[in-house]
Design goal:
With 144 residues, the chain is an alpha+beta fold. The protein has two helices and nine strands; from the N terminus they run βββββαββββα. The strands form two sheets. The protein has a five-stranded antiparallel beta sheet with strand order 1-2-3-9-8, with helices on one face. A four-stranded antiparallel beta sheet has the order 4-5-7-6, with no helix packed on it. The chain starts with a strand and ends in a 10-residue tail after the last helix. The relative contact order is 0.24. About 6% of the residues have low confidence.
């Protein structure tokens, strides 16, 4: 059972559900298709618009603050998993690979609109390394 967080404007399309050993990071782009929405590449890789890097970092920063504030009830002592790999896979597109599980993509089923929603499960132990890997892709002054 998780604690769904109220979406904040600085998170853009991202949303969070906090749990005890991990959290869910979701991206929601209703009614949108094309290159401006996330795409699942495989179970550990997705692409997202590079312009959203600041919003993604803002959501991840909140997740870190939440985990720190709730340290007595969350499990963050595990060693981080494999390293995060971030790169621009195409102009304006950020490709993120790492130790998470992509849970689902598509609002009402993969076939109808496979690039509308994306949810990934991320362990708290892997959160700080992801934030550090993402920071170079965030334009100065955003995601603070």
């Amino acid at each position: 059972m998780g604690a769904i967080q109220e979406r904040r404007p600085e998170w853009g399309p991202y949303r969070l559900e906090m749990r005890t050993q991990s959290f869910y990071l979701g991206s929601w782009h209703p009614g949108t298709t094309g290159d401006s929405v996330p795409e699942c590449i495989d179970e550990t890789t997705f692409t997202t618009p590079a312009a959203e890097a600041g919003e993604l970092l803002a959501a991840l920063d909140f997740a870190q603050k939440w985990a720190n504030a709730n340290a007595a009830s969350v499990y963050v002592n595990a060693e981080p998993g494999e390293p995060w790999r971030l790169k621009e896979s195409a102009p304006g597109t950020l490709c993120i690979s790492g130790p998470f599980a992509l849970l689902r993509i598509g609002a009402a089923g993969y076939e109808r609109n496979p690039r509308t929603a994306l949810t990934a499960e991320i362990r708290y132990a892997d959160l700080r390394p992801l934030r550090d890997a993402l920071r170079p892709y965030v334009p100065a002054g955003s995601g603070d």
